[in-house]
Amino acid sequence: MEPFWDGTRLYALSDRTVEGQERLWTPIAFDEAQGRWEPALLPPAGGEIGLPAWVFGQRSCVPLEGGGLLARGLYHGVAKLLRYEPESGWHVLAFEGTPENVPFPLEDGSGRVAWLDAPADQPPAVALGGFEGPTDRFRLAWQVPEGVTKEDIATPETLQIDVDDDGPSPLYALFYPPAHGAHCLPAEETPPLVVIVHGGPTGQARTDLSFKVQWWTSRGFAVLDVNYRGSTGFGRAYREALDGQWGVRDVCDCCAAVRYLIAQGRVDPARCVIRGSSAGGLTVLSALAQSDLFVAGTSLYGVTDLRGLVADTHRFEARYTDRLIAPWPEGEAVYRARSPLSWPEKITAPVLFLHGGADQVVPLSQAEALVAQLAGEQQLHIYPHEGHGFRAPDVIVDSLQRELAFYQQVFEG
Length: 413
Description:
It comes from Saccharibacter floricola DSM 15669. This is Peptidase S9. It is built from 9 helices and 20 strands. By secondary structure, it is α+β, with helices and mostly antiparallel strands. The strands form 4 sheets. Strands 13-14-16-15-17-18-19-20 form an 8-stranded mixed beta sheet, with helices on both faces. Strands 1-2-3-4 form a 4-stranded antiparallel beta sheet, with no helix packed on it. Strands 5-6-7-8 form a 4-stranded antiparallel beta sheet, with no helix packed on it. Helix 8 links the parallel strand 19 (351-356) and strand 20. Helix 3 (249-263) crosses helix 4 (279-290). The longest helix is centred in the C-terminal third of the chain and has 20 residues, at 393-412. The termini are far apart.
């Protein structure tokens, strides 16, 4: 993926099998010989250079003069800037910025680069600088409210958790303790925990500043953002560990990460909740059915019927579940067994469903069908004009306030 020219040579990113090397997305070159383009392997970079192809315009590697390359690599899910020189190979740069994509060299001969900078404690911005880091950040995506300081913002701690099964180990996650600034609610010694399950499921929990995290950490909650096996940024073996295991291994990983925090005494075991969007919604419902760790959960435009998803989803993901669940239609029995709609009686904890009425990826009918069969304290709220992912500011505000009130009600009960 991500092919590019340096003027004389063609490059692309690949995680092809190379004997003796870990399978990571990494740049490879192509040389023309006798009318054919043959790959010429570069030395391994040691990190994963590449992102899942969810959006247009992503770039993880660009050419430099003299046959060099500049790349954004992920080491255990943490972004670093890398430089490749034909004579000396790859080098990790002591770069002070946090690039969302690879920095682009400017064409003014200055030797500077420009990138989108996305640190954990500042708003994302366009940045300019050299290979050491930014000299200027401008055009901030948004402004921090007046009076808010870094003490009001929680920053992540990267967790590596050993797991004892037939999959790759360790498991990775990001843990955010409650923030303690003047604008935050006082945090308890052992705070409640919100577990976030990212979508995709071939996605990644990232370290850049996120409102969906800070909303909770400023209100006395700890947050656990899990890079369950199947996530990107950790190599092909880690990503493919979810093949045929969606709804199983992701659930086990979220539970293992929660048990790890409980064993360390860092969160209140009686007040753990779980939330997830899209594919993460399926994980939330499966976790509530398979574990007693969570006293409540929230499914945001989440999957409840895998067979219905195959029939109704958009063409971009038309065969996605063949790898994650089983070939369709031969594996229909597996789809039925993994679908929350098949076992509503197992979901006994309160669940909040938030869904857009115009969702064409996971239709509203998925949430409605499950809610109709659930007993107990279940809530469904529909935002009529929202699609797959909430965009309108008033909807985002309402959904977070509604979810917070839901958990507070459960805790009081």
